[in-house]
Amino acid sequence: MEIFLVILVSYLMGSIPFGYILTKVFLKKDIREIGSGNIGATNALRAGNKSIGYLTLTFDILKAAIPVLFIKINYPDLIHISALSVFIGHVFPIWMKFKGGKGVATYVGILFCMSLNLGIVFIISWLIIFFISKYSSLGSILSSLIIPIFIFFNSNYEIEYFFIIMFVFILYTHRENVKRLINKEESKTKIY
Asked: Which of 25, 39, 108, 111 has a C-alpha 20 to 30 A away from that of 102?
């Protein structure tokens, strides 16, 4: 019963479509009809309002951090189940006909809850890759790959497998970006 509740609550928290809600309420736009059509923070930035983009980023991080942190404190054995459920909720939200975001902000929330060091490694990696390439997607893909590599060299094999799974998920959600990157058709992102 505990596992079922953890999965359900984590999934429902993860599936709250903040990008869609914020652009609809404040900009009177449907984010699914803007840019890539994605409901995540990067596409919210393309909606024409940086504040909405950064608010989406913040809320997408928090919607992962809140349930995962709660589970970490109260049911530590179920933290990976909670984290995966939150991530899946964001990528496949029930409220949006299972068409959600790419999961990067949610992943950041998960990282910081599991390990402050991992969260910092991801952010620094993403910033370096982004400022060199100007591609948000490339930063996200490579930074999520760096995490299990970092864990491997720090000898914590128990959670390394979890983060390999997370990398595979992020690679999957960015599959169209990968095609565009290969074809040199990917849009560069302005974050300031």
From this structure: 25
Asked if residues 23 and 39 have their Cβ atoms less than 8 Å apart, the reply is: no
Query: Do residues 50 and 76 touch, judged by C-beta distance below 8 A?
Result: no
Question: Rounded to whole angstroms, how far apart are CA atoms 161 and 34?
Answer: 35
Query: What six digits make up the tokens of 160?
Result: 């390394």
Tens of pLDDT along the chain (192 residues) come to: 799 999 999 999 999 999 899 988 888 888 888 777 788 887 787 766 788 889 999 999 999 999 999 999 999 999 999 999 999 999 999 998 898 889 999 999 999 999 999 999 999 999 999 999 999 899 999 999 999 999 988 866 667 889 999 999 999 999 999 999 999 888 887 765
